[in-house]
Structures are given as structure tokens and as C-alpha cells.
Amino acid sequence: MSAIGINLLWCVPGVVGGTEEYAVRTTQSLLDRQPDGLTFTLFVLRPFVDAHPELCELCNVEVAEIDGSNRPLRVWYETTWLRRRTRELGISLLHHVGGTIPALRPVPSVLTLHDLQPLAMPENFSLVKRSYLGAAIPRSVARAEVIVVPSDFVGSDIKSRFNTAPEKVVTVSAGYDLPTLLEVNDPAVPAAVAALINEPEPYFVYPAITHHHKDHATALRAVAGARDAGCSVRLVLTGGSGQADASVDDLITELALEPLVWRLGRVERQILELLVAHAEALLFPSRFEGFGIPVLEAMALGCPVIAADATAVPEVGGDAITLVPPGNVDSWVDAIINRTKNIPERDKVAEAGRRQATAYAWELAGAVLEDVYRQALAP
Fold first, then answer.
1. Are 129 and 206 within one domain?
2. Residue 184 maps to a domain
3. DSSP letter string over 271-308?
4. Whole-prediction pTM
């Protein structure tokens, strides 16, 4: 029997975006399989237990009594507390899902790298964070027995940047479970959201934390351009606040978009799914993605996708989405206007998206992750 530890101490619920869902769902898919000969322990923050009780009920859980808001303290816990508890519990292999391996490594390691944005776009990070990650990521890649990535794009980036052996890098893709959608008039749907969906004017939706690389500015400028061209559109923005939050507000004011842009912040998953399903399209101008879960979710829901032709998004969307040069506002305006004119035909786009989405499933992720652990444990 081999004891596997899964280090989720980096995961502060509601703060880390799509990587949280990826980590939780791949882990749950793995634990649901109940692999023979393997036992599991999750190392988590106290808020993680409250946010994901269903996952924490599936195996042994070790809770660090910190909330994760103090990054240096969290790193210290990974270096000391995690190391000590790993030894005391007889852990054979430790999976670090947050992109780095602590400097003092008690046992062999699997590393999940969601992307290499800190190295590709260091300007999006503070001096302290990019200095830390600039040293920690290469060190972690070199020390890991196996590296898990969410897409072939990230895997290729790692292999080319670090000259990593191909057999050491394994793609564990995200998945999506098609939900049962709420009815628009369901009491659980806020009245304002129901009114938005029921209005005749089309709306587009962009679900993303306002980080710089998400490029909300291109979406806003494109909506303004469509408006100026006589096309009546609205934009719904969901997601938490990031480093670019103030600049997003300023640009909405500068472009006089207040009547056309709804900023809903973080919304419940059921409400987000309803918004996406009824949207004219998902706008996804993000310039850097290790996978792009919102693109997959939109395709599965039959919502057309207009996305930046960058990083992992073309891999996930394939021929089922409209790809636009990142940051090219004129091209984004054209894509929005064409979508409102039903070009290409919405039903055909929706069907192509649904077909593309079937290639991704959380159950497959769990199976591949089990193979990763057995590979890392092999002599």
C-alpha cells in the first residue's frame, strides 16, 4: 500500500480562479476511483475544508490552521509543517498541485504546473512574486518525478523552455459535467438576471477575474466599437476582483459604457451557467491560458465562443470556436457584429461546440492522474 499526499495549501478558495476548480475536480475524480493499493491524504487550509466539504469527506485530511492570505506564512508551512506531517504519516509520494515544490523535499514529488505565465509575462506579477517564481519554477521542474499539465500547450512550453524529457510530462485535461439548467423564472434566479436574459437585445458574457492577462480592455473596447457601428449589444462581466479591477471601472466610464456593461462579480455556478447558456456568445479575450475552462463550459452549454487566438485556447476549442487575434479591437468588433447577425449560424456553432466538449471529461482526468502516481512510484 502506497500513501499519496496531495498538497493543496496553495489553494485559497475564491481567490485562485480556474485553477481551484481544476485542482478540486481532478482530485475528486481520482478519489472517486478508489485506486487499488493507494491511500490519499489532502493537505489543505482551513477555509478549503469549509468550501469543499464533499471532497474532504473522501479521504484523510490534514488541516493547516492558517487561511492562506499571508503568502510567506503559507510558504513557510509548506517548508516546515508539511514536511513534518509527511514524514509522520509515512507518505510515499507528494503531489504539489500549486506549481512549485518546497525547497526542502521530504519524499519524491509529482508537480502540477498550470502554466508558465510568470516566466512568459513577468510584468503581470509583483517584483517579489516574479522573483520567487522565477527561481522556484525551474527548480521544481528539475526535481519532480512527473509533471502534470492541463494542456499540450503547457507541456510543450515546459519541454522547450527547460529541455524536459517528454516522458516526464503528462497532460491531465480538465472536464465538464453538463448541468441541469435552472429555468429563467426559477425563484433561485435573481430578478435582475432574469430580466437581463428576457430582454430582446443580445448580451455577451465574460467570466474572469480582472487580472491583467485577461484583457478585459479588449472586450470593453470591442463592445464600444460595436455600439458605435450601430449594433445594440450588452456585456456581462462576472468573476472576482484582480489587479486590473480599477482600470476596468475607469475604462467603462471613459467609453461611456455604463448602460451596456453589467458587473456582477462572483456569482453562484448555477446562475453563471444560466447566463452563459442564454448569451449570444462567450467573449474570451484572455492573452494567456493554461487551459481555458470557461471555453469548455460554454461549448458544452451550446454557447458560441469568440476567443483570443493565443496559448491553450485554440487547442481546447478546436474548429468549434471563433478565434480572433489577441488585442485586435477591430477584429473583435467584426466578430461581435457577425455573431449578432447569426454569422455563422448559431445552431451549427452550438452543435460543433457540444461535439468538441465531449472530448473532455473529469472521469478521464482521474484515470490519467492514477497512472501518473503509479509511474512516479515505479522504480
1. no
2. no
3. HHHHHHHHSSEEEE--S--SS-HHHHHHHHTT--EEEE
4. 0.92
